[in-house]
Amino acid sequence: MTSAADRKLFVLDTNVLMHDPASLFRFQEHDIFIPMIVLEELDHGKKGLSDVARNARQASRFLDELVHLTALDDIDQGIPLTRTDYAGRIDDRCQGRLFFQTRRLAASLPVSLPGDIPDNSILATLLALSEECPNRQVVLVSKDINMRIKATVLGLRAEDYHNDQVLDDVNLLYSGAIELPPDFWDTHGGKMESWQERGRTFYRVQGPLVKDFFPNQYVYLADDSQFEAIVRRRENGSAVIELARDFRTPQHAVWGIQARNREQNFALNVLLDPDIDFVTLLGSAGTGKTLLALAAGLVMTLDQKLYREIIMSRETIPLGEDIGFLPGTEEEKMTPWMGALLDNLELLSSHENAGAWERAATNTLLLNRVKVRSLNFMRGRTFLNRYIILDEAQNLTSKQMKTLITRAGPGTKIVCLGNIGQIDTPYLTGTTSGLTYVVDRFKQWPHAAHITLRRGERSRLADFASDTL
Known about the structure:
The chain contains 14 helices and 20 strands. The protein has helices at about 15-20, 35-45, 50-65, 120-130, 145-155, 185-190, 260-270, 290-305, 330-335, 340-350, 355-370, 400-405, 435-440, 460-469; strands at about 10, 30-35, 80, 85, 90, 95-100, 140, 155-160, 175-180, 195, 200-205, 220, 230-235, 240-245, 280-285, 310-315, 370, 385-390, 415-420, 450-455. The strands form four sheets. A six-stranded mixed sheet has the order 3-6-2-1-7-8. The longest helix has 17 residues, at about 50-65. The chain is elongated. About 35% of the residues are buried.
């Protein structure tokens, strides 16, 4: 049991509550302090339909519920951070107390930090608490890097909010593929079984590596055997692996597209598998994420007729200065953001022997089955028998990813594309991105697959720029 002196006092910045309203209940046995300026900023930020505004309103609701659980005279003693779930059960994992600023806390800031700025007011409060509680560790929690730097310069403790961090290091993220050791068949093939089913070849293997396999993981040997397979399931200390199809040859091209490397080949295997409902593709620019996802979607929509249409969407974050509002319908407003879609459609619809009329007819056919939709209008919808592509998914939070993925109805497949090295959203990093979150959470599910594309295939110029700039 942690004593009162050992409990830390965490001072929450406004951006923490706007990022995760439930952060109030994430500090276990430690106490939380809310400066009055934070309540003012929550009030200013609650207006609007953005996720930040919704989070501000939800944080205010949580605070209101907690305030109503205690008597007015006991607020100075701290409010127990108790929380009940929908079934009425008390969540006892959070045993700290919540303190509000109920009086003016005097502290002298340097002349260069005037106190009328909200951030500096919070720093003044933090400084005063540190002076009043010399035997207690007072820590500022903020998503603002500059705020943490200023606190450190003043000799105060400051931390980022880590509860939504999926991994300690983005390099530990599940890659979706594993290279087998050269002696794999010697150590795992002693009791091997093999059979064929619906024209596919399966193996059942046993050995020490089996426990580390994940469903739909890509396994391969780097020798001349060119063995490439997909882990289908683990059962009773053994694993069933399926020999992967080879899409590198012209006769097995997907809408005219051939895989150019091992990872692209695996991506096409899982994209064309109707039993896999959720696919995530990570990779830097030029690795072929959008092209592979779109080619597989066209085959499954137009040729195999497994889906009614392709829906493509992405987060609308500009690279440079915003050019302002765009005229037109939802699809017309989204068109400038969908340059990657149009570029890849142009490549997929181009044929050497086709005339101008044939290419125009093909483009019209494709655009009739490929719809562009804005993420802003996804909430509350249900997509039936759709093939959904979420591009630039690294800019989405874990809550936004949950909202979008739960829109999938029966017969719908979702493909998430992104590069966690190009995150443009404030307060998101490679370890807290929603894309990282779903890759880690779905790796055990038998109807999901992930692959990290390593090699760029766009052009020698793009490859050189990606490696050296």
